[in-house]
Design goal:
There is one protein chain. By secondary structure, the chain is mainly α. The chain has one domain. About 95% of the residues lie in helices and about 0% in strands. Helix 2 packs across helix 3. It is rod-shaped. The protein starts with a helix and ends with a helix.
Length: about 170
């Protein structure tokens, strides 16, 4: 063990020279490529971080634009819905007005038909009454009537009129 702790100047010089030579070789051939690789890796990481930041900013910008477009589209849709409601109300009002006009025309037509039917009924009553009067007059002229004969004469005249009317209708 003593040999290991003894200092030999020749050995020490050769050890220092060898150590320096190894450090020089390592510095030239190993440390330089390692440092160069570490620098390249750092540059690559820094570039990746920069690209990621740029991508993030671009994504935020795109998101902002998308939100603006979405809000604009929502506003346009609401506007279109409002316009559609207004147009629907206008169409509804026109349809109601047209229906009211048609109903009024139908009502007027019905009134005219009722008035025409009323006139026809009155005309028929007048003709019936005139025919009845004529028939009664013929009977009165043909003979004088007693109190009971009036009633039987009127009933007979009505029966004859109805018979003549039925036969007149069947011929029409």
């Amino acid at each position: 063990m003593e040999n290991l702790l003894n200092v030999h100047p020749g050995l020490m010089i050769w050890t220092v020279v060898t150590f320096l030579f190894v450090v020089l070789i390592l510095w030239k051939f190993v440390w330089a490529p390692i440092l160069k690789g570490l620098d390249q890796r750092a540059d690559k990481i820094e570039g990746d971080l920069q690209r990621a930041e740029n991508a993030r900013l671009e994504a935020e910008k795109s998101l902002s634009e998308y939100k603006e477009q979405l809000a604009k589209a929502r506003d346009e849709a609401n506007s279109m819905i409002q316009e559609s409601r207004i147009k629907a109300e206008e169409v509804k009002a026109r349809i109601v007005d047209a229906a009211e006009k048609v109903a009024e025309e139908i009502k007027e037509k019905a009134k005219q038909d009722i008035e025409l039917s009323k006139r026809k009924a009155l005309d028929e009553i007048q003709h019936y009454a005139a025919d009845l009067i004529v028939m009664v007059s013929k009977k009165v002229i043909a003979g004088s009537l007693k109190g009971e004969d009036h009633k039987s004469l009127i009933d007979k005249a009505i029966g004859e009129y109805e018979d003549s009317r039925k036969s007149g209708q069947s011929s029409h």
